[in-house]
Design goal:
It is rod-shaped, with a radius of gyration of 33 Å. It contains three helices and no strands. It has 143 residues and is mainly α.
Length: 143
């Protein structure tokens, strides 16, 4: 009973890993060039995990005698390395997002100042035109 439950959990995990790998290959073209190496390493680790899951399933289903502790400890080590890489990429992504937000805020502030100056010039021009119309109605043309 216990091994059937283990097989089900690992099988479902393998399906999710395969789906993740598929999604990863679909988004590889959008990865910035300076992060491609780390992204490929993550992809390799996901494939490594999938092989580990499939190896576990094979060992369980075939009843082949192999030290599962060794297999799981290797997969755990790979998992720790995977998490380390994910954290590094997440920190880099957050840094880039913050930098992009700062640049965007500076652009918005600069554009707001430009628009305020343009608005002020237009208001001055409108006021001047109103004064000119008032003056021209006092002095009709031809006098």
């Amino acid at each position: 009973m216990t091994s059937i439950l283990h097989i089900i959990f690992v099988g479902v995990g393998a399906i999710f890993l395969a789906a993740s790998i598929s999604l990863n290959f679909g988004k590889n073209k959008q990865v910035p060039r300076d992060l491609v190496g780390r992204w490929r390493l993550l992809t390799c680790l996901m494939i490594f995990f999938l092989f580990g899951y499939c190896g576990y399933l094979y060992l369980q289903l075939s009843r082949y005698v192999f030290p599962l502790d060794l297999l799981t400890s290797i997969v755990f080590l790979g998992g720790a390395f995977f998490v380390y890489l994910i954290i590094g990429l997440s920190i880099e992504t957050i840094r880039r997002i913050n930098e992009a937000n700062e640049v965007l805020e500076e652009r918005v502030e600069a554009r707001t100042l430009q628009l305020a100056a343009s608005n002020e010039r237009l208001e001055d021009e409108l006021e001047q035109r109103k004064k000119n119309r008032g003056t021209s109605s006092i002095f009709p043309c031809g006098t």
